[in-house]
Design goal:
With 257 residues, the chain is α/β, with parallel strands linked by helices. It has a domain of 174 residues: 3-Layer(aba) Sandwich (Rossmann fold), CATH 3.40.50. Helix content is 33%, strand content 23%. It has a 6-stranded mixed β-sheet, sandwiched between helices. Strands 2-1-4-5 form a 4-stranded antiparallel β-sheet, with helices on one face. A hairpin with a 2-residue loop joins strand 4 and strand 5. Helix 3 packs across helix 4, helix 3 runs parallel beside helix 5 and helix 5 packs parallel to helix 6. The longest helix is centred in the middle third of the chain and has 14 residues. The termini are far apart.
Amino acid sequence: MRSAADGEPPALETRGLHKRFGGLAVTADVDLRLERGSRQALIGPNGAGKTTLLNLISGAVAPDAGGVYLDGQDVTRLPQHARARLGLARTFQINQLFPGLAVVDHVALALGERRGSSRRFWRPLGADEALLDEAFALLEDLGLDDHALAPVGTLPCGRQRLVEIALALAARPKVLLLDEPAAGVPGAESHLILDAIAALPTEIAVLIVEHDMDVVFRFARRITVMAGGAILTEGTPEAIAADERVRAVYLGRRQDG
């Protein structure tokens, strides 16, 4: 992995990102930098602005001020699909899968979207052998090949989350935003998510929003903490774990002075 010292821009950057809903500032001048190939977590209490920040980065919400830069390119005014084509992929807190559709069909449609062929509905997916081969290979990488033909709604929650990750990877992203990938996953299945995240291609820069601190501290090499719509602090997992300000934010204690 090449670093910023080599003169390359970061994989993802926000500069002075600001968003208000009515009189409430949900993000306040947020500067976030995600280096190429990084493994970074974004944490904070409920209402800190984490999901809104992901919405601003992905293009689901337009900022009032500031900018979003993908691989050095200003994408602030680009729609979501254009950002996706430039290498930005995202999963969501709430499952957006189709329960009655087979797992492999989900992935094949995502691959077809990347290739620009997903709108050729007149052509059965099974007629594109290369596309199905790629879909099965991706599912095998995530340990889902045995479930490829099953309707996604019949899978346990943990494996449905893996399908969502497969859909994001189908876009061959440079930057992957994971919005609470372990949400709703029983503890007995959480290892599926951790193993999948650990096995992600090293060239992809990953930003994960997650409340499960076991997931965060096993995954992240750097952690950004948000509170009240702003960045409170950022550092290594060891530094964040020892930071009294972070403990105060999570436990609701006010600091002296």
